[in-house]
Design a protein that fits this description.
The chain has helices at about 5-10, 25-35, 45-60, 100-110, 125-135, 140, 150-160, 185-195, 205-220, 220-235, and strands spanning about 15-20, 35-40, 70-75, 85-95, 115-125, 175-180, 240-245. The chain is of the alpha/beta class and about 250 residues long. This is Class I SAM-dependent methyltransferase.
C-alpha cells in the first residue's frame, strides 16, 4: 500500500534514494523494483533486518533491474549519517508526526538532498487525525505514537523555510510543488477502531472493515479503486506534499 506517487516525485532508474523512516519497507521495495539505488533508513534494527532480507530475496528472484542496489542503515533522523547533497530523491512517509524536533529532522532531509532533487513528505491529514484524537486518547498516547497534528500550511511552511532554526533564522529554502491526499478508505477504519478501542481487533465492525481493506490491497477491485478516488480528496487519511530543492546558483 503505497502513499507516495513516484511518477510525481520524478523517480528514475539509477537515482540514489533515501527512504527515511522506512519501517517495514513498503516504499523502499517499490523504488528498488523501479531500478533505484535505495537506502532504507530507520531507528528500528529489527524492522531493518526484515527489509534487508526481502531486498536479498527480490534480487535473487530477478524482481529488480540489472544494476539496481539496495541496503539498510540504522540511525537517528536528527543526525543522518550521510554526506551533504547525497540523494536524488527522498521519501519521508508517516514519520514527522512522531518526532519531537521535527524542524531538525526537516533540516537534515534537506541537507542530504542534492540541488534539483525532490522530496515527498507524508503525514496524517488534519481532519481524519483530529477525529481519531477526539475519539480515543489511546490512539496517540501510545509509546512512539503521534505527538502532533499538522495542517498543510504548517508543514509546507516548515519545509519551504528549510526548517527554521531556534533563533528564528530560516534554513535552506525548498520549493513546494504540490499536494495530494490518499487512503480515503482507511480513515473510517481508524474512526471505528478509535470508537470501539484501538486494541479491540475482535469487534465485529472492526473485523468486517479490516477484511474490506485487505480485499482492497490484495485484489484491487475496480469498485474500491473508484471509491478510493472519490474519498481521497474528501477524507483521505494521508496528506502527501512534494518539494524540490533549488538548483545551485
Amino acid at each position: 500500500m503505497l502513499t507516495v506517487d513516484f511518477d510525481r516525485l520524478g523517480l528514475q532508474a539509477g537515482d540514489r534514494v533515501l527512504d527515511m523512516g522506512a519501517g517495514a519497507g513498503r516504499h523502499s521495495f517499490e523504488m528498488y523494483r523501479r531500478g533505484a539505488d535505495v537506502i532504507a533508513f530507520d531507528l528500528d534494527a529489527d524492522e531493518l533486518e526484515g527489509v534487508r532480507n526481502l531486498f536479498v530475496a527480490m534480487k535473487e528472484a530477478g524482481e529488480v533491474p540489472e544494476g539496481a542496489e539496495a541496503d539498510v542503515k540504522q540511525g537517528d533522523a536528527l543526525a543522518l549519517p550521510f554526506a551533504d547533497d547525497e540523494f536524488d530523491r527522498i521519501v519521508c512517509s508517516e514519520v514527522l508526526e512522531h518526532i519531537h524536533d521535527d524542524v531538525a529532522a526537516i533540516r537534515e532531509l534537506i541537507r542530504v538532498l542534492r540541488p534539483g532533487g525532490t522530496l515527498a513528505v507524508t503525514v496524517p491529514r488534519w481532519l481524519p487525525e483530529v477525529i481519531n484524537w477526539r475519539l480515543s486518547a489511546d490512539y496517540h498516547n501510545a509509546e512512539g505514537g503521534h505527538i502532533r497534528i499538522y495542517t498543510d500550511h504548517e508543514l509546507i511552511d516548515k519545509v519551504t523555510k528549510g526548517g527554521r532554526f531556534n533563533d528564528g533564522t530560516p534554513g535552506e529554502a525548498m520549493l513546494f510543488e504540490g499536494k495530494s491526499y490518499t487512503h480515503g478508505l482507511h480513515a473510517p477504519y481508524w474512526w471505528i477502531k478509535c470508537a470501539v478501542g484501538v486494541d479491540n481487533d475482535s469487534h465485529p465492525l472492526a473485523k468486517a472493515y479490516h477484511k474490506l481493506l485487505v480485499w482492497e490491497i490484495m485484489k484491487q477491485p475496480k469498485t474500491l479503486q473508484l471509491a478510493g478516488k472519490v474519498l481521497d480528496p474528501m477524507i483521505g487519511k494521508s496528506m502527501v506534499l512534494y518539494f524540490r530543492k533549488p538548483d545551485a546558483a
